[in-house]
Structure formats: C-alpha cells, structure tokens
Specification:
- The structure holds two protein chains of two kinds.
- Chain A is of the alpha+beta class.
- Chain A has ten helices and 13 strands.
- Chain B contains five helices and five strands, in the order βαβαβαβαβα.
- Chain B has a five-stranded parallel beta sheet with strand order 2-1-3-4-5, with helices on both faces.
- In chain B, helix 4 links the parallel strand 4 and strand 5.
- Classes of the chains: A alpha+beta, B alpha/beta.
Amino acid sequence: MKENWNKNSKKDGPAQGIVMKENHGTAESMSAVSRQELAIRNRIATIFLTIPDEKMYNEVLKIILEILESEFGVFGYLDEDGALVVPTMTRHIWEKCKVAEKKIVFPRETWGESSWARSIREKKIICSNEPSTRTPEGHVPIERHLSQPIVLKNEVVGILQVANKKSDYDDRDLYLLNIIADTIAPILKARLQRDIEERERKKAEEKLKETIAELTESNRELEQFAYVASHDLQEPLRMVASYVQLLERRYKGRLDADADDFIAYAVDGANRMQLLINDLLAYSRVGRLGKEFELCDCALIIEQAVKNLEVAVEESCADIICEPVPKVKGDPVQFTQLFQNLIGNAIKFRSERPLEVLINSECGNGEVIFSVKDNGIGMSPDYFDRIFKIFQRLHGRGEYPGTGIGLAISKKIVERHSGRIWVESEPGRGSVFFFTIPERRQE
Amino acid sequence: MNFHGPGKPIEILLVEDNPGDVRLTQEAFKESKVFNNLNVAGDGVEAMEYLRREGEYVDAPRPDLILLDLNLPLKDGREVLSDLQTSDEFKRIPVVVLTTSSAEQDIFRAYDLNANCYINKPVDLDQFLTVVKSINNFWMTVVKLPSE
C-alpha cells in the first residue's frame, strides 16, 4: 500500500500539533531513496525469515529505531480477540518504566485515546512533534512520536511507534515508517496465522492424547468388569447347575413327565450359562493376562494348534496344509489360541465336500498377512462384520455348537498385536480369514 | 496308628461357608465305601472352636482329616492353615484345601503353610462329585491317617 507523500493523504489534523515539511525530492534523490527502500525491505524480510519467535520482534524494532533515528519504540500486533499484544518495547524503557501496571496485552476496551489506539482505529499514521500529554504516571517522557498502523488488505494487523528522535519527525520519516509497515504487513500476518494454526494443532494433539488415555482407561475398566462379573457369577451358577443336575439324576422318571421336561430345560439353561461365563472370562483374559511379546515360530504354533484339535481333525478327515510361514513377534499363547480358533471354525463349518484347510502368509508393507482358507459352507457378505462381535452367531443353537465368542476373542488378540482381521467368503464356496501382524524389528 | 476298628467312622471336618457346597459334599461322601462322619464348621472361627472343643463343641471328636475352603467369613482359610501349622496340637492333622480360587499365589501360600494338597473345586457337578470321591478314596483308603 504505497502512498504518494506529495498527496498528504495520511496526515492527522492540526489539533495534534503536527508540523509537515514539504517534499523537495529530485530525480537523483529519488533513486537513492529507492535503493534505500529496497535495502530496508531486505533487512526486515531477512529478520522475519531468519530469527525465531519472539526475538524477531525485538530485532525488527532495533532496525526501525535505527532507520527512524529514534530512542524508543513499540512493535505490537493484534491478536484474535482484537487486543493489542506488545511483545517488545525497547528493553531499557521497559525496565525504567515505573508505570504501576506494566502490561503487554491491551484488551480493546481499555485502549482509550492514546496515539497508537487512534492510529489503529483510524488506520492512519499519527505524527506528533510535541511532548505527549497522555503518558501515564511514571512513563518515560515522550518528546515527540510517530504511530504507524501495520495494515494488510484494509485490516490492521499491528502497530509501530517510534519516539524521541532528536529532531522533529518529518515527511521522510513518515515515508520510511510507511515502507517498513508495508514490508512487515504480509509477513506479520503470515506469522500470526501460522502461530494460530500451531496453537490449534497443539490443542488437537492434546485432545487426542486425552481421548486415548480415556479410552485406554475405559477399556481396562470394561475388561475388569467382564472379569469380575463372570468370576462372581460362577459360584451361584455352580449351585444352580449342580443341584438341578442332582435333581435330574435322583428324580428322573420318579416325578411326572412334565417335571422331567422342566428339569431338562433348567439343566440345559444352566449348562449354557456356564459356557457363556467361561467364554466371557476367556475374553476378558486377552488383555488382562496377555503376556509380553516374544519372537514366535508360527510354523510350530500352527502345529500345536492343529494338535490341540486332533480329535476334531480326525473326525472330519480334514486335510490341513500349511505353507511356510515367517516368525513374528507376539504372545505365543494367544497366537496358538488364534490359529486354533480359525482352524477350529474351518473344521466346524465344513460342508459335504472333503474338508481342505490352507494356511498361508504374505509379507509386505511392514506387516505379515496370514490367511486361513477353507472350502466349507461360507457366508453372505451381510455378516462379514457381525461375526466378530461377542456372542454373535449365524446359526441356531442346535445346528452348530459354540457361543459365538471365538471370533470376538480372535479379533481382540489380533488388535492387541496392532493388527487387523477380516473375512472374504461366498455362501457354499468357503471362507478365507485374513489377519495382519506388524513386523517388528528385532533389537 | 490307624485304629479304625469295625464301627468307628473316620471323622472329617469340613470347613465351608456355602451351604450348597456343604450339602453337595455330604451327598458325595454318603456314597463312600468307608464309614465316615462329616462334621461342618461354617467359618474359620468356628473351625478353631471345634478343634479346641470349646463351647458347644466340647464333645467334638478329633478330626482325622480336614477339608478346608480358603474364602471364609470372619477368619479365612489361609489364617486357619497358619493357626494349624503353628499349633503342636493340630499340625499333624492332614489338610486338604478345597477351594474355588485357582490363583497361583493361593496355591503357593497353601503349600508354604504345609497344606497336604490343594484342590480346585470343579464347576461341573460330575467333576465335583468325582473329585470328592477321589479325596475320599485317596485319603481314606489309600493313605494312612495319623489318627488318634
């Protein structure tokens, strides 16, 4: 926003006691002036670019005081609330200044009629070559001063003030201060913008940390609850289950047929509750009793899992093939559980065809993707998400055994290892269960 | 010396607060081949009174075997174990810890306090009955008890 000083467009009224000199610039002095202008712009820009943070304001002020041959100065900016923030006044004034309450943030309501306040409000330079009458008690005496707003696109971004030049401030000073303000404006605006964004970013980061902490705690509480609930439910359940079974044993056939039925339902209910509670306990153990991670030989783990299933494997005449699999870091007990569950499911949900189970793996992108493929009954995509939820089953109780916790536990185990688990499947064709385990560097 | 002449039952002290479990244990012991008497104390304090033949237990027979639950009101099984172990009078009596707790530290502590063995109460009825019968078999037919 360059002004032609010949036009006297940015001057204050006579009430302020201004003495304006005429502009006698010649062609020669103009090009000298342009060179000087360039030099000033360069010096200021360099400071902004090379000096960090709050020190920057002070360095810029030093240059300004030098160029304007002034003893004291102020360089401040407007914050988001429109208050004036003054990170720097010349150091020695700050110390000498005996004003009762030295502030560096001036909320808009407190501004009053000082030159800098008017300069900002009216967006124009204010020049006073007479001693200031507005300085507060204890303030350093001001003989003469200039106030120049820093304006970008008609918006005031900051303020510059210089004071106590040995001689009066003239047109040239106004001009120089204007150039300086002009140079500073876009850079200051960008700086402030960046500071705001940085603050926002930090706030968001803090919020995220807080949220993570809350969720972790919430998780722990839930696990604790699951454990306590299932543990405490065991004992009364044992009473119900045991005595109903005793009833069945001792009185079967000795009461009427209805009684036999009633007892049978009760026994069945108790047994199922037993299984649910055991499964809940198992589920709660995944996080609670998880072991430290160590390097695991997955081939051995899969072998063990298959061995644990040997009765089912034999019964189903399943053909289980395992391709070479890598070693990964994790909890070996949980890995065994995981593979045992997935392979067990493949066996459970087999079709009429001879069962084939293929276990494979693929490395890439910093993770290992394991897959367990079967040619069993498969499922519709509608259920791809549901099956991983607690106690979700796709079949009636009589059709296939189990409470529907297996995949929920598997998912929890995989997630404990920072992995993902998912399924691809087609009804009647079979399913492939995938899960990832991040590769960790060995120390 | 194990002087169980004809007609003399093996005296068992069951320290258990859950009446349901007491009854189950009684039912299981009823089917024992060996003549036995199951006496019950509902908490640790009662157990010690029984042993010391205090109050209403003045005529109580000395137990040949103690079945001890760990989680008891007033004075828990762990404390009872400790009392038994430090008492010259009672430390000789075999103690079978029969409890729902499977906590490792409980197991260690029980053996440290000289329990003769530690058994987890099974959740399943059949298993529970089997376990009680095993206790019965082992401690009352296989083993020689230090009966007096």
